[in-house]
Amino acid sequence: MASEFSPEMVKSLKQKVFTSARDGMAISIFAMLWNLDAKIVDAVLNHYTEEDGQKTTPLIIAARNGEDKVVQVLLSNFRVDHEQTGTVKFEGYVIEGATALWCAAGAGHFGVVKFLVEHDADVNHPTLTNSTPLRAACFDGRLDIVRYLVEHGADLTIANKYNNTCLMISCYKDHRDVVTFLLEKGANPDCKAHCGATALHFSAECGHLEIVKELIKFGASITENDHKMTPLIVAAECGKSQVVNYLISLPECSKKDKIDALEVSGASFANDKENYDISKAYQYLKLAMEERYRDPHNIVHKPHYPPVPAYDNWVECKTMNALEAIEKNYGALHMESLAIRERILGADNPEVPHPVIFRGAVFADSARFDRCIALWMHAMKLRQRNNRAIPKDLLRFSQVFSQMVHIGVRLEFSPILEVLDHAGKEIERDMERMGKEDEDYLALVEIYQTNIHTCLYLLVIALKVTKSKEELHQLHQLVYRFLRLKPALKNGYSALHMAVDSASIVDDFHVNDVVSFPNSPLAALLVRCGADINAQDHVGNTPLHVIVRYNDPIDDFDTLHQIILSLIRGGSHLDMRNSERKTPMQCSTTGVAEVILRQHNQIYLKCLAATAVRVHNISYKGLIPQFLEEFIELH
Question: Are 72 and 115 in contact (CB under 8 A)?
């Protein structure tokens, strides 16, 4: 009876039943639960256990692990809810809202699937991302489970939150037998995901030739995705030669589409990190040129596209003779290919920047930093112009700038200013993105914080580079604009807090060769440009509270001294108290910091008055202006 079980006993029972379910100990579960009060059984079987990143009930974990005997015991003997949902992990993905049937289908446990369906489990119960058990089975490529679910009412048309259908995931994962079955059962090959891609796009992207043929056989249409890319162009951009060769052989492929596909194929092989093949690149570019001139009465001339400065103002070859002249000139072929990709795919296509960045990295590896910077700047501008996040671009610049400073290569100040300008705009956009309810807030916060760190790296680098008075003025303007945004980390740290904290993160790829914290020149720059000297983090610490805890004052006395001076001269209040009611002096971890503070101890009359009000418990709330109340509370 329930009265015989203490809370501790019920807690222990929950753990024992879960462990038995996880490990397939069906008889033990039956023995533990048989003849118990129904309320206790319900409490045990509805209890969620968190383990290895999963949050599951006994039924869900048993189904996930394929423990069919456990599932049978639970469903046949106890009133367990087979529509319970939990959080499980599959191939690195965390799935929230998964039922026991979804888990069994995704893990390929046919016996468990069959038993659950026989006990009226909902074959269309979706996860939080609207993934059904059928989609899970399609992902795993289990035709037997797919067929069984469809025969028992699984809906082929239900798509996940990205509007990806079961057919799409089967095509992407290269499960040809499942694809054929779904098509035979009436799956629509022309459904579009939110990005505009169809099943044909997904199979072409992955180079699954036989599935491409199967889709064409069932009448799949050649349509464009949201970036105006057909499956043919997608295959060409991804270097999937077999798919390209097949699709251009189809009678419905126009001459223009064929030429574009051949040129994009060649251009991609010339600047693809994973599929780099300069010989194949030239072969495809030559095939495209031959196609342009195949009919002397109907020559397909290249359209004009303005030269891109980042590509060395390269003008594309317009004749076979011009192309043959650069066959062995790999540098020219690289620029030819970048120009072709941008012309055909379009400057707003998100795939265009990747090869540009790759080519820039190759230049950086050979110490041709001017060419690297030009290409990376172009890629970053393309991304930002199309409202795409650029945290990696900004960090990449801080890395290459640091490398140049470290090895003593001349670094012009103008590109640093330009990158800082883009960084400031990006932080503004980060704040806008975080304010939208439909965005992934936590992921955006991480990007935002990364960008704040990168801005500080760039500012430290900027201070190490020779600059004119006009450039210094421009730097101050950018820093002022940056500070007006009031950038802050999750712990409430302002840029000034970060500048004076030895724990501030520094990227370890070249950046840490020239950037370190605390950083007195950076702190002075931030103070000069209007940083809030007395800004408080979430536990009430000001930058002065932070720097006095610096534990390396002997070896780096000058840094400690200069930062404290900058803060005090900038108006830092020495008597401000944090949430522990401690002043900076009381937070000092070394005698050196205390000595410096005493040497420059300047407490204003208004601070003494505020402290007196607090010490003597004088009533003030509601009797003075709000800003004075806030001032008193800081002391």
Answer: yes
pLDDT tens for each residue of 219-263: 999 999 999 999 999 999 999 999 999 999 999 999 999 999 999
Task: Supply the pTM of this predicted model.
Answer: 0.86
Strands 93-98 and 49-51: unpaired
Closest by alpha carbon to 179, among 133, 234, 136, 218? 218
Alpha-carbon distance 102 to 137, whole Å?
Answer: 8
Q: What is the pLDDT of residue 606?
A: 56
Q: Does domain 1-155 have CATH number 1.20.1260.10?
A: no
CA–CA distance, 407 with 416 (Å, rounded to integer): 17
pLDDT digits (tens, 9 = 90+) for 436-494: 866 688 899 999 999 999 999 999 999 999 999 999 999 999 999 999 999 999 999 99
Give 127's contacts (C-beta < 8 A, 6+ positions apart): 85, 95, 96, 97, 98, 102
Q: What residue type is assigned to position 436 of the chain?
A: K
* 47, two tokens: 């209890």
| Secondary structure string (H, E, C) spanning 120-171 | CCCCCCCCCCCCCHHHHHHHHCCHHHHHHHHHCCCCCCCCCCCCCCHHHHHH
CB atoms inside a 10 Å sphere around CB 440? 11
DSSP structural state of residue 494: B
Q: Name which of 578, 505, 590 is nearest 542 in CA terms.
A: 578
**Burial group, residue 92, by CB count within 10 angstroms (0-12, 13-18, 19+):** exposed
Integer Cα distance of 337 and 335 in angstroms: 5
Query: Hey, where are the domains in the chain?
Result: 1-155, 259-374, 389-531
Q: What angle do CA 228, 233, 234 make, to 5 degrees?
A: 90
Collapse the DSSP code of 90 into the 3-class scheme (helix H, G, I; strand E, B; otherwise coil) and give the result: strand
